[in-house]
Design goal:
alpha/beta, Rossmann fold, 7-stranded parallel β-sheet, 3-stranded mixed β-sheet, 12 helices, globular, binds nicotinamide-adenine-dinucleotide, binds sulfoquinovose-uridine-C1,5'-diphosphate
Length: about 400
């Protein structure tokens, strides 16, 4: 298939592009380097050094003998979006290209507005461009399990049958997201579902859980092909952070009691899920939702697993929770649709953690201990950045 990967310079977009390329698809990557800008803004960097997008693409094309095309531009520019579809003529567009950090979106008003404009406008421009250029293009959109929040009932895959006053209907599952970032994904979902209904587009919303890991078969082939790995208090996700904290001797930062439970998946499963979705498209006008995670764990469980897998001694600290979220709650979410399509998950085992710890250990000298503690407080309308850099958002 011809597959365009938006956000193809990011943590997940880059390894996904390589995986799809190696699996025989014609791949193009699109990015505006916003993620690299956030690093400059906060004075932090990926733990694993990453090459420029141009160099990554050149190295992949040389190492693999395949061709990945690169396009530089911003999805909030509608002319660029139309142009890139016209030039690449994709059959599927995989859309990773959003501001994806909940804490970043909660820094202050500017960062909340930036996040929602970037994400919602970018996706709207894409929907219009697909409808105008070729409505048969399948949109594979990265959503988040965080759209659902933590309700006291089972979470279904996108829709729930509701009986009300003697009548029933299949309705979008209620959304109770926990940050302005997660809200941007909810707004996207509504816009995508509506576009499918009115223009007959076809789309898959991948409500993904928290991803962990860094290496894939393709990124491990050359240092230029490495993908980023974030551990700081704004962009680092929980398990990746815990591995870095263990290696540098920082207590593992469990927020509050640690009962917060989330769906998780190995980075290698992200790539497989995206390909399964792309190669099994929905029908014309169909909007479908897959819950993309393989296991769920509480934050406390994750911390204990890292402590057990770490060869040295590691400790857990229950820090003052910076977020407004339930710490002890019911959590059971359906996730059968990708398994039905053939996903064979990599489950979280001690061996997985040991290989993540080994990657971290290789680059331990690059860890900035000052960037580890959380600095963004959900209860405040203004937080300071980790190293009080100059804001890049207006
Ligand atoms: P990332 O920030 O590393 O990658 C996103 C990429 O999109 C970046 O390279 C960025 O420069 C680019 N981008 C952002 N706005 C853009 C715009 N307007 N125009 C062009 N490019 C733009 O994030 P990631 O961790 O790779 O996540 C990718 C997607 O998956 C996101 O949509 C995120 O919400 C979703 N997701 C991520 C996780 C996770 O654990 N990392 C979990 C669930 C869902
Ligand atoms: N947490 C800690 N200690 C830490 C970091 C996090 O206890 O040091 C807790 C948080 O309070 C939260 C949970 O761990 O309860 C997950 O936090 P996270 O930062 O790993 O993940 P989150 O903010 O939810 O966001 C990440 C990605 C986002 C994606 C989401 C999937 O950054 O792009 O949408 O995971 S989900 O969680 O399913 O919504």
């Amino acid at each position: 298939m011809r597959i365009l990967v938006l956000g193809g310079d990011g943590y997940l977009g880059w390894p996904t592009a390589l995986y799809l390329s190696r699996r025989g698809h014609d791949v193009g990557v699109v990015d505006n380097f916003a993620r690299r800008q956030y690093d400059h803004e906060m004075g932090v960097d990926s733990l694993v050094p990453i090459s420029s997008m141009q160099r990554r693409v050149r190295t992949w094309n040389e190492v693999s003998g395949l061709t990945v095309d690169a396009f530089v531009g911003d999805l909030t520019d509608p002319v660029f979006v139309q142009d890139v579809l016209r030039r690449f003529e994709p059959e599927a567009v995989v859309h990773f290209a959003e501001q994806r950090s909940a804490p970043y979106s909660m820094i202050d008003r500017q960062h909340a507005v930036y996040t929602q404009v970037n994400n919602v406008v970018g996706t709207l421009n894409l929907l219009y461009a697909i409808a105008d250029f070729d409505p048969s293009i399948h949109l594979v959109k990265l959503g988040t399990m965080g759209e659902y929040g933590t309700p006291n009932i089972d979470i279904e895959e996108g829709f729930i049958e509701v009986a009300h006053k003697g009548r029933t209907d299949l309705l979008p599952y209620p959304k109770q997201p926990g940050s302005f970032y997660h809200l941007s994904k909810v707004h996207d979902s509504h816009n995508i579902m509506f576009a499918c209904r009115i223009w007959g587009l076809r789309a898959t919303d991948l409500n993904q859980g928290i991803v962990y890991g860094q290496e894939t078969d393709e990124t491990a082939q050359h240092p230029d092909l490495a993908t980023r790995f974030d551990y700081d208090g704004v962009f680092g996700t929980v398990l990746n952070r815990f591995c870095v904290q263990a290696v540098v001797g920082h207590p593992l930062t469990v927020y509050g009691s640690g009962g917060q439970t989330r769906g998780m998946l190995d980075i290698r499963d992200t790539l497989a899920c995206v390909e399964l979705a792309a190669t099994n498209p929905p029908g014309v006008g169909e909007y479908r939702v897959f819950n993309q995670f393989t296991e769920s764990f509480s934050v406390q469980q994750l911390a204990e697993m890292v402590v057990d897998a770490f060869p040295g001694s590691a400790t857990i600290d229950h820090v003052e929770p910076p977020r407004v979220e339930k710490q002890d709650h019911y959590y059971r979410a359906a996730h059968t649709k990708l398994l039905d399509l053939g996903l064979v998950p990599h489950l979280l085992q001690a061996a997985t953690l040991r290989s993540m710890l080994a990657v971290v250990d290789r680059f331990r000298d690059r860890v900035d201990a000052e960037a580890i503690l959380p600095t963004v407080d959900w209860r405040r309308t203004q937080s300071t950045l980790p190293t009080a850099g100059t804001s890049v958002v207006a």
